[in-house]
Amino acid sequence: MYHSIQFGDKNTWDDWLIVPNEFPRFTPPEPKTTVIEIPGADGSLDLTEALTGDVKFKDRTGSLEFYAYNDNNPWFRQYTELINYLHGQRMRVIFEDDPAYYWLGRFKVNEWKSNPPTSIVIDYTVEPYKYENIDKTYRWKWDPHNFNTDLCRDYGREYVIDGVKNLYFQGSRRKTAPVITAEIAEGDTLVLLYNEQLYPLYNGDNVYTAITPPNMLNRFIFSGKGKVRIKYTGGLL
Hey, is 71 helix, strand or coil? Predict the structure, then answer.
């Protein structure tokens, strides 16, 4: 394994013959903290979670260094291909070591050192969370599933509700609301019970910003008659 990185449609090894000089990763994001010093009193007042109930983070910034293997590709051609594709661009990035998630960010070519070993430095500014690399067609299958790297999520699977049905739903570290798509026949009703709060569902997409499942197994209780699909893209730090 070359520990390759997929920048958009390009692979660092397959397309440019460059490999990271260490296991590739983005630096941890800095928490956005709000701390107020109180004159005449000990300690301080920490208001970090006061507005949203959760810690927010700044973008991740840093650099990745790669060694370049020119072989039959002249260094100036290799450099030209890379800088024209990558420099200043915002794109999706996937680490070969962590294919179940993708990152979003902007990149620029910082430095190209031609003295052996030839190396190149790429600067990055990426969002704090990595996102689940799934879409509406995603279905995990038992036999080929890798429990170390793959996701256990049936994105958009249709559930038939006739009475009361419990669905167990895996949340994530990133606080985001799922999209619950309901199909309800005329005269029928459908409601969701979550954390002891009732949410009426209507035909089409339903999004309740109060529903942000934490990184654990959450129980959704549907009652009534109809069909539902849950679309959710979680994320981890």
Answer: coil
Over residues 190-233, the pLDDT tens digits come to: 999 999 999 999 999 999 999 999 888 889 999 999 999 998 88
> How far apart, in whole angstroms, are the C-alpha atoms of residue 151 and residue 100?
6
Q: How far apart are CA 178 and CA 205, in angstroms?
A: 10
**Torsion sign across C-alpha atoms 103, 109, 111, 113:** positive
| Mean pLDDT across 127-132 | 94
| Cβ neighbour number for residue 190 with a 10 Å cutoff | 23
> Phi-psi category of 76—alpha, beta or left, where left has phi over 0 and alpha has psi -120 to 50?
alpha
3-state helix, strand, coil in the chain (%, to 5): 5, 45, 50
Helices marked H in the chain: 75-86
Residues 153-172, mean pLDDT to the nearest whole number? 84
* Alpha-carbon distances of 188 from 164, 183, 184, rounded to whole Å: 14, 10, 6
Measure Cα distances from 43 to 31, 35, 37, 49, 143 in Å: 20, 10, 7, 17, 55
Which domains, from first to last, does the chain contain? 5-128 (2.40.30.200), 158-236 (2.60.120)
Q: Which helix (H) or strand (E) holds 110?
A: strand 101-113
Q: From residue 71, how far is each of 16, 18, 45, 149 by CA, in Å?
A: 11, 11, 59, 33
Q: In the prediction, which pLDDT does 75 show?
A: 72
Q: Global pTM? A: 0.81
Tokens 């590709």 -> residue = 73
Round the average pLDDT of the chain to a whole number and report it. Answer: 86
